[in-house]
UniProtKB/TrEMBL annotation:
<keyword id="KW-0796">Tight junction</keyword>
<dbReference type="GO" id="GO:0005198">
    <property type="term" value="F:structural molecule activity"/>
</dbReference>
<dbReference type="GO" id="GO:0160184">
    <property type="term" value="P:paracellular transport"/>
</dbReference>
<dbReference type="InterPro" id="IPR006187">
    <property type="entry name" value="Claudin"/>
</dbReference>
<keyword id="KW-0965">Cell junction</keyword>
<feature type="transmembrane region" description="Helical">
    <location>
        <begin position="120"/>
        <end position="142"/>
    </location>
</feature>
<comment type="function">
    <text>Claudins function as major constituents of the tight junction complexes that regulate the permeability of epithelia.</text>
</comment>
<dbReference type="GO" id="GO:0005886">
    <property type="term" value="C:plasma membrane"/>
</dbReference>
<keyword id="KW-1003">Cell membrane</keyword>
<keyword id="KW-0812">Transmembrane</keyword>
<keyword id="KW-1133">Transmembrane helix</keyword>
<feature type="transmembrane region" description="Helical">
    <location>
        <begin position="169"/>
        <end position="192"/>
    </location>
</feature>
<dbReference type="InterPro" id="IPR003927">
    <property type="entry name" value="Claudin16"/>
</dbReference>
<dbReference type="GO" id="GO:0005923">
    <property type="term" value="C:bicellular tight junction"/>
</dbReference>
<protein>
    <recommendedName>
        <fullName>Claudin</fullName>
    </recommendedName>
</protein>
<dbReference type="Pfam" id="PF00822">
    <property type="entry name" value="PMP22_Claudin"/>
</dbReference>
<dbReference type="GO" id="GO:0006811">
    <property type="term" value="P:monoatomic ion transport"/>
</dbReference>
Length: 239
């Protein structure tokens, strides 16, 4: 029981930080950052929703939002948005389900098997959240790296070149955390479910054996005359 509680709390901590990292990553503005910042007087960051420029000397930041969501955007940007929003929703729901499934939370206190199933569902949701999260963040980072490498290979200089920033790293970390917490909850909760089922069947067998023994003892204490009368009644009934 102590190990079960420990695994639940560890999974809850990882799920909390993973969901937070994914949400912060989705709604921050540093998926791409200028790689040649030593030659610039400002730091330029691009996110999934807007682009910000920060002056190096006075720290003043100016942000420009992209056009409407229905406007023409690159496939990389649109798919990354969709995958990260999906990861945010799944990880958030997985964390909420996990909180309800914790043994310390007074929700369905008399239904331990149902709470274990809630934890199992939470683990599956966290695993599913990690798939679009890691796919979107890694694909975005690889695309930025390939684009920059191709420009350098062909000696093309467009005035500014980008590398992937801390928002992209945060998305990767949140996705890996979802995989870790989901694996803990699904695998470990499955083992504990098997143990609980074994205990349930053992208790049922003991109750069944006790009931059979009680019946035998009761019949043994019946008087001989009562037993004979029962037999005669049975014969008459068949006739």
């Amino acid at each position: 029981a102590g190990m079960k509680f420990f695994l639940q709390y560890v999974g809850c901590v990882f799920a909390f930080f993973s969901a937070g990292f994914l949400i912060i990553s989705t709604w921050t503005d540093c998926w791409m950052v200028n790689a040649d910042d030593s030659l610039e007087v400002s730091t330029k960051c691009r996110g999934l929703w807007w682009e910000c420029v920060t002056n190096v000397f006075d720290g003043i930041q100016t942000c420009d939002e992209y056009d409407s969501i229905y406007a023409e955007h690159s496939v990389k940007l649109v798919l990354t948005r969709a995958m990260m929003i999906t990861a945010d929703i799944l990880s958030g729901l997985g964390f909420l389900f996990l909180v309800l499934g914790l043994d310390c939370v007074k929700f369905l206190p008399d239904e331990p098997l149902i709470k274990q199933r809630i934890c199992l569902v939470s683990g599956v949701m966290l695993l599913l959240a990690g798939v679009p999260g890691i796919t979107g963040s890694v694909w975005y980072a690889v695309d930025v790296y390939v684009e920059r490498s191709s420009l350098l290979l062909h000696n093309v200089f467009l005035g500014i070149q980008y590398k992937f920033g801390w928002s992209c790293w945060l998305g990767m970390a949140g996705s890996l955390g979802c995989f870790l917490s989901g694996s803990l909850l699904t695998c470990c909760m499955y083992l504990f479910r098997e143990t609980s089922s074994g205990r349930f069947h053992s208790a049922y067998s003991l109750r069944k054996g006790y009931s059979s023994a009680t019946t035998v003892v009761t019949n043994a204490h019946l008087p001989c005359s009562q037993t004979a009368t029962s037999k005669m009644y049975a014969v008459d009934t068949r006739v």
